[in-house]
Amino acid sequence: MPSFTRAARGLSGRREATSRAPSPGAPGPDAAGRTPSATGPTAAGHGRDDRAGVSADRADTSADRADLPYDEADRRADRRHRVILYGGRVLVGLLTLALWQLASGRWVRAFFISSPTAVGGRLVDLVTTGELWPHLTVTMEEFAVGIAAGTALGVALGLAIVYSGIVGQWFHPYVMALYSLPRVALAPLFIVWFGIGLASKITMIITMVVFVVFYNVHEGVRSIDPDLLDMARGHRATRRQTLRWVVFPALTPWLLTGLRLAVGLALIGAVIAEIVGSSAGLGYYIKTSSNLLDITGVFAGLAVITTIAMIFDFLVGRLERRLLRYR
Amino acid sequence: MSTATGTTAPPKLSVRDLRLSYRSGRRRNLALRDVNLDVADGEFLALVGPSGCGKSTLLKIVSGLVAATAGTVAIDGQPTRGTPERVGLLFQNDALLPWRTVEDNIRFPLAIGGTPLPEQRERVKRLISAVGLDGFGAYYPRQLSGGMRKRVALARILAADPDVFLMDEPFGPLDAQTRARISADFLALWEQVGKTVVFVTHDVDEAILLADRVAVMTAGPGRVKEEFQVDIPRPRSIDDVRFSAPFRELRHRISQSLRTEFEPTDAGDGR
Fold first, then answer.
1. At residue B211, does pLDDT exceed 60?
2. B134 vs A49: CB contact, 8 Å cut-off?
3. Which residues of chain A have pLDDT under 70?
4. Could you give all domains of chain A from N- to C-terminal order, each with its CATH number?
5. Which pLDDT tens digit goes with each residue over B92-101?
6. Distance of alpha carbon B149 from alpha carbon A46, whole angstroms
7. CB–CB of B178 and A52 under 8 A?
8. ipTM reported for the complex, 2 dp
9. Domain range summary for chain B, segments of one domain joined by +
């Protein structure tokens, strides 16, 4: 257990190390205060006695991370940690699939639950025959346009409500009321209003996405450290400068959280709208398979959707690591 | 380098009959009551007082972050409006931008003021050296200790280069050793530039060591109660001053003046 947490600390330390190191001439981050020779007498001297302040300053507990020495032993512990982490993950997945395969046709009739091999075979068919692409591109198009529009609208709405003062307060409860509407129930309505094409799907996705983003922006703006805003004001920053230097960076983690949730919600919205009324898309494929009692087809469609969700979640995770490396 | 100018010179900063009341629930509370204060050009004034006496609020009013209920603040005889240009406030917590590097944090006032980028970088480099943070320019605040973050905040206010430095218990949350070292460094820096400073602290020793004059404030509603001239020659060595007779005598008098403020009977009778 202790070696485990140490490995985790080492891991975060390493990430900082690689993402920082601005120029070859700069001293290594781990030389911050530990090795006086690397940083020169002044800085090292301050580094040393200032660290005494760390214990007194509770807000400061992570400061020693910069000073963590990172050597071969840590590297090995990291590697072991990664093997255990990812190896375990893959194992859980494989075991689940194996159990499914085992159950199929033995404990449960294969007709009801299909099997991993059957689903895999179907996926290969879908790709090789090219049947997948029209469905995939339709859904991806809805997803891309919907999530972009929904996020933009959510950000705009969040900023508008926070910064419009009393007017925003008038609208706020209604936004929250709309949020609590079961949007699934609106899908048929959107089909009636906007037809079975792209527009109804995008509308559906927007209603799914906009509230999460709105809520995150709203909370994010309210949680900005007032001292930072005062600091900007004290330096006579304009509104635009304040947005650029303080507000948007402070919102970034909130936006990323919103985006992460939005990926899943957007896919749900797209599939629901497609199931309710469409002529193409992954949801359409799932619905037609289901109508034909083709359970393998349903699972194949779900597998594709899950894969899309995982890819985008991974991409947002990557973006997060990049944008939030200051943490 | 600098000498405290006499009372005949026009005050750099002048606070007149400043009053601040605020609503708390159904009542109106008085935070500051008729505060009067003059600070000469190049003078180092320390404000001491019990916590909650409105010292910090006074600085926020002078820097334009809080609007006073009544009274005026004037700089060079000109009443201020909004955020005055020649005033810089050093916050109690360092108020560094966590998503910006040390360099960018120090660069902030220059970027806001529209200094060309090459010149920004040049000045930032010098400031990083001045506060003893060479080699840490690319670090994020999270990676620094409390004392180092203070140095960054100090460099940032030096980058803004105001005529009047307002410092709100700037070294408060640090441990005694770090604090002594930073105070000494700051004192040395200040003795070079000789700008006007208003320094809020609850530490009487720190006030005497740094300041030309110490003003004692009353418990809320805050008011300037008494002022003490610090006639200890500069440049001062903190370690030597601490054990000198004038220091001990002054500390005794200021502590006396403060002590009455901490007694509950005095706090409430609205003297």
1. yes
2. no
3. 1-70
4. 2-87 (no CATH), 118-323 (1.10.3720.10)
5. 888 999 999 9
6. 11
7. yes
8. 0.84
9. 13-86+162-268, 98-161
Q: Which of B97, B112, B136 is the closest to A228 by Cβ?
A: B97
Interface check for B193 against chain A (CB to CB < 8 A): the answer is no
Q: Please, what's the b/e burial string for A89-106 (b: 16 or more CB within 10 A of its CB; e: otherwise)?
A: eeeeeeeeeeebeeebee
Question: Based on the number of CB atoms within 10 Å of its own CB, is A323 exposed (0-12), middle (13-18) or buried (19 or more)?
Answer: middle
Classify residue A39 by burial, with Cβ atoms within 10 Å: 0-12, 13-18, 19+: buried
Minimal Cα–Cα distance from A7 to chain B, Å? 19
Min Cα–Cα distance to chain A from B89, Å: 7
Architecture of domain B13-86+162-268: 3-Layer(aba) Sandwich (3.40)
Which residues are registered as beta bridge partners of B70? B19
Q: Is B66 on the interface with A (CB under 8 A)?
A: no
Q: Identify the residue whose tokens are 């109690």.
A: B92
Shortest CB distance from B145 goes to which of A23, A54, A327? Answer: A54
Q: Is the peptide bond before B141 cis (omega within 30 degrees of 0)?
A: no
Segment A5-24, tens digit of pLDDT: 444 443 343 333 333 333 33
